[in-house]
Write a structure and sequence with these properties.
3-stranded parallel sheet; 7 strands; two-stranded parallel ribbon; alpha/beta
Length: 178
């Protein structure tokens, strides 16, 4: 059984972390509560946050719906990022979407970033090296995803300043990273 930390426990941890000199804390995730019950209290948690000078509170989101949930809270400093996965299985399990659907969603997010005057900061590709159900992800697949994203970003008159390749499931090694 997975334990779910109560909201008060999360707030206490955030409070303690904010006193350590850490400058940025990802406090929650705006994801589906039925899939990730650990974050079912996202709105409640963020509404109870008190500002700490010099500390940036952030939140994870996977799509425009999650972004909008987080953007309603002035306690959060929302980030303009795009999050995809090289593994179709991972995307289905975590985002409940296909790669094609996730790439289409980028346009919605880019429009929201413009509306909120939020710069596009980066693209993160999860499972960029492999996934337990698919094995090694070929670099060509990752590059094809990046190309699709760059086309979408360019069609909105933007450029992509950073790309993060995440070893989400522990498949990378020095040779694959190289």
């Amino acid at each position: 059984l997975e334990a779910i930390v109560p909201t008060e426990g999360k707030l206490e941890l955030i409070h303690l972390l904010s006193r350590t000199g850490v400058k940025s804390i990802e406090v929650t995730a705006f994801v589906r509560p039925d899939r990730v019950p650990q974050h079912a209290d996202a709105e409640k948690l963020v509404s109870l946050l008190e500002a700490v000078e010099g500390v940036r509170f952030r939140a994870l989101y996977l799509n425009s719906k999650g972004f909008l949930r987080g953007a309603q809270f002035p306690q959060l400093e929302m980030e303009g990022y795009l999050l995809l996965a090289a593994s179709e299985t991972f995307l289905k399990e975590n985002n409940n979407s296909t790669l094609e659907e996730a790439v289409k969603e980028i346009g919605n997010l880019l429009e929201l970033f413009k509306e909120k005057r939020l710069p596009l900061e980066r693209l993160m590709i999860s499972t960029a090296f492999g996934h337990y159900s698919e094995g090694v992800i070929p670099p060509e697949k990752v590059l094809a995803i990046i190309e699709k994203v760059l086309e979408k970003v360019s069609s909105h008159g933007l450029t992509l300043p950073e790309i993060t390749l995440a070893d989400t499931t522990g498949w990378a090694n020095p040779f694959s990273v190289q």
